[in-house]
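Folding Problem: From Residues to Backbone Shape
Fields: amino acid sequence; protein backbone structure tokens
RECORD BEGINS BELOW THIS LINE
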Amino acid sequence: MSKQEPLLRDNKDRFVIFPVKHNDIWDAYKAIEANFWTLGQIDIQKDLVAWEELNGEKRQFLNKVLGLILSTEKNLSGLTKKISEKINLPEARSFLDLQLVMENTHTEAYSMCINSFFNTTLQEEIFKEIQKHPATIAREEWLQKWSNSTSFAEKLVALATAKSIFSYSSFASIFWIKNCGLIPGLCYTYEMIYRDKALHRDFAVQLFRDHLLEEISDKKIQQIIGEAVAIEKEFIAEFLPLDLIELKTKSLTEYLEYESRRLFTDLMLNRSIIREDLAKEILVSKRAQDFSQINKTDKEFNKVSKKTDL
């Protein structure tokens, strides 16, 4: 399979990125490059003042939310690395290499926030609680299972799923806090991270849907997504004390199910038509232009790219 897949095929004759062969992938790369940010852009000084005004229950809730997100993020970069190591298409490697850098920035931002709000003792307590939780063990087993799959298609679906489903409940909680006008620096940080994750998720979907020859059944895709949804639902129901901020478990789980259905639809959109085109191996001259045009209407990527040959 790896010898036939355009994404995994050796590109020994391409010494430089230009001329770009796959404009849709390059446009996606330029989108995350344009949105790249660093920790120096984050200001949590107002948060430190606002923190003193929060009651103990809201602090307890945020402790769990931040700890859960940081714990999740530490595991997700391993899946990105495994996929990046397999891909030889220069345009796609550019995206995934930058994605890894962005994931490091996310971890740094999480660490800064939790370090600013909680002392070492509280941090240790929450991380021990997270590590012992059954859903944490299930999530780690899920990541190991699909990241070690011999199917590259399954790895891509798993990456899109992880970016879309895991920590969904935590992000929803942060956005709820934003609507209350609390801790603006933290909320701004998570807006940036949420946007990044959406770009990463869309790119994994794009590679799977538009640039892969490997067959994978609808049932297998549903299995990968369904297992992740079940794990996230367990965190919602049993770990996050949503009652402390008057968030409804039912509302979060219903929207999580909506997100999972949307992901499945995006993965399967025009899949049979794409397979036909890929099978003809028109991967340099015709498909680069075709997919560029498709993505102008189907995706919300920023279009920033150099003049290239088609």
User: Anything to note?
Assistant: The CA atoms of residues 219 and 225 lie 10 Å apart.
